[in-house]
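Thread amino acids onto this structure.
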C-alpha cells in the first residue's frame, strides 16, 4: 500500500498546496480530509496561479481522482464556483468525487460565524475566515447537520433546509443575528445542489478500494497542527482535526493503511487570526518576512503575523503527527540575513520548558529562548539540490531536522513548481 498523509506542522499557510502539487506528479488519488473553504492552497502551474479552497490540489494533474472526503465541510455554492472556475480555465473536473458523508455548510452557518465573531467578548474573538466552518462542524457534532448524501433527494433536502433555516431564524434573530430570507436562500443554493449532485459518492469505498489496489493515495491536510481542535492553541483554532489522526477519520481509511507522513514546515513561522504565537515579531524583521514572503492570506487577504522558526512547537507537532519526512518551504525568504534566529526553548515563570504548553494562559508568561545561527548572503532560489545550497543554509536545515526529530525529504526555494527538489528518490513510497 502507499498512503501518504501530508499535514501542516505550524499554523497553516506552510505551502501545502505547492508540495501536494509536486507530490501529485506520482499520485493516483488525492483526498482532502478535513476543513473546508477556509483553506487556500496556492499552486503555480507554469504562468498560471490557482488558489484552491475545497478541490484537492491534485486537480491540476489530469486524470488523478480528486476526492473531498467525509471529514470536510462543503459549501455547495462555493464548490460550484470553484469547479466552474477550474473548468473555464480548461481543467478537467470530471475526476472530482464528493463524499455522501461530508457535512454541508448552509447559509445560516455563515451568518452564525459572523454573529459569533461580532458578539464575542474582548479577547475572545477567534478571527475566523467567516466561511461558516465552525457552525457547520458544531451541527455535525450536535447531530443536526445536513450531509452531502441528502442532496440526492431534493424534496427531502428542501424540507430539512426550510426546517433548519426556520429554527435558525427563531433562535438567533431575536438575539441580534441577521435574519435569513429562506425562499431567497433556497433559490441561491438550489442550482449549486443540482451541480454537485452527480459528484456525490460513497468515497469511503472508493478511497479504500484505491488503497487496497496499491494505488498511490495522497491525503491532503488543510490548516496546520496548532489550529487542530484538540492539539492546537485552543480556543484559537479551527473546528476540525488537522493532524494525521484526522486523515483517518476524515476518509474512512484505517490507521494501519497510512504508510508515510509528510509534515510541511515553513522555514520561519506565520499565523493568521488571533491566538498565541510565541515567536511573533513586531519589529522590522517581522515586516521584512511578511513583505519578502508575500505573507497575506490566500483566502481572506489578511496580513499574516510573522516570526522566527519555533523548534519547540515544531518538535511537539512532529511528535503528534508522527512525521517521517519534512517538506521545508520558503527557505529563500531567509536569504540575505546576517543572522537567523531559532527558538529552542520557552522560559515560563523563570523556568525553561521544552514542550508546547496546553493552556492558552501560559503563553502570556512565555518568553522564547533563541539561538543565533549564522545567515547566508547568497540566493537559494536557483539551488536544485542540497549541495547547491549555501553552507549556512544547509546547517540551518540540518539543525531544524535535528530539533524536530524528522528527516528532510523536500526543500522549496520559491513559488514555482521547479523551485523544489527532493532529497529522497521515491516521495510516495
Ligand atoms: P475558521 O477555520 O474559519 O473557523 O478559523 C479559525 C482559525 O483558523 C482562524 O484563526 C483562521 O485564521 C485560522 N485558519 C482557518 N483556515 C486557515 C488556513 O487555511 N490557513 C491559516 N489559518 C487558517
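Threaded sequence (429 positions):
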Amino acid at each position: 500500500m502507499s498512503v501518504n498523509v501530508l499535514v501542516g506542522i505550524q499554523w497553516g499557510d506552510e505551502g501545502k498546496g505547492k508540495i501536494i502539487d509536486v507530490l501529485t506528479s506520482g499520485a493516483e488519488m488525492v483526498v482532502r480530509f478535513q476543513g473546508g473553504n477556509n483553506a487556500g492552497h496556492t499552486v503555480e502551474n507554469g504562468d498560471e496561479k490557482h488558489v484552491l479552497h475545497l478541490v484537492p490540489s491534485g486537480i491540476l494533474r489530469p486524470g488523478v481522482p480528486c476526492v473531498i472526503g467525509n471529514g470536510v465541510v462543503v459549501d455547495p455554492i462555493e464548490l460550484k464556483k470553484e469547479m466552474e472556475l477550474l473548468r473555464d480555465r480548461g481543467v478537467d473536473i470530471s475526476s472530482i468525487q464528493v463524499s455522501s458523508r461530508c457535512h454541508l455548510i448552509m447559509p445560516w452557518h455563515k451568518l452564525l460565524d459572523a454573529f459569533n465573531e461580532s458578539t464575542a467578548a474582548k479577547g475572545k474573538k477567534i478571527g475566523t475566515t467567516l466561511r461558516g466552518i465552525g457552525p457547520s462542524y458544531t451541527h455535525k457534532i450536535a447531530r443536526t447537520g445536513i450531509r452531502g448524501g441528502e442532496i440526492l433527494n431534493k424534496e427531502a433536502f428542501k424540507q430539512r433546509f426550510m426546517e433548519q433555516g426556520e429554527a435558525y431564524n427563531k433562535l438567533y434573530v431575536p438575539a441580534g443575528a441577521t435574519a435569513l430570507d429562506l425562499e431567497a436562500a433556497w433559490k441561491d443554493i438550489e442550482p449549486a445542489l443540482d451541480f454537485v449532485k452527480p459528484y456525490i459518492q460513497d468515497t469511503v469505498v472508493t478511497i479504500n478500494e484505491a488503497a487496497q489496489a496499491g494505488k498511490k493515495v495522497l491525503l491532503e491536510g488543510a490548516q496546520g497542527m496548532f489550529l487542530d481542535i484538540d492539539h492546537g492553541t485552543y480556543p484559537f483554532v479551527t473546528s476540525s482535526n488537522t493532524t494525521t489522526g484526522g486523515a483517518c477519520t476524515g476518509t474512512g481509511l484505517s490507521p494501519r493503511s497510512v504508510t508515510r507522513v509528510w509534515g510541511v514546515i515553513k522555514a520561519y513561522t506565520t499565523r493568521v487570526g488571533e491566538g498565541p504565537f510565541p515567536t511573533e515579531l513586531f519589529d522590522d524583521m517581522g515586516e521584512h518576512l511578511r513583505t519578502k514572503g508575500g505573507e497575506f492570506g490566500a483566502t481572506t487577504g489578511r496580513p499574516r503575523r510573522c516570526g522566527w522558526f519555533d523548534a519547540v512547537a515544531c518538535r511537539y507537532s512532529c511528535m503528534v503527527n508522527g512525521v517521517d519526512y519534512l517538506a521545508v518551504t520558503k527557505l529563500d525568504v531567509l536569504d540575505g540575513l546576517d543572522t537567523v534566529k531559532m527558538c529552542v526553548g520557552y522560559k515560563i515563570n523563570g523556568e525553561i520548558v521544552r514542550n508546547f504548553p496546553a493552556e492558552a494562559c501560559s503563553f502570556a508568561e512565555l518568553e522564547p529562548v533563541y539561538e543565533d545561527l549564522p545567515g547566508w548572503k547568497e540566493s537559494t532560489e536557483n539551488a536544485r539540490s542540497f549541495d547547491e545550497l549555501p553552507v549556512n543554509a544547509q546547517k540551518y536545515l540540518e539543525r531544524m531536522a535535528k530539533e524536530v526529530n524528522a528527516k528532510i525529504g523536500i526543500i522549496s526555494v520559491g513559488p514555482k513548481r521547479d523551485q523544489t527538489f527532493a532529497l529522497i528518490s521515491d516521495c510516495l513510497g
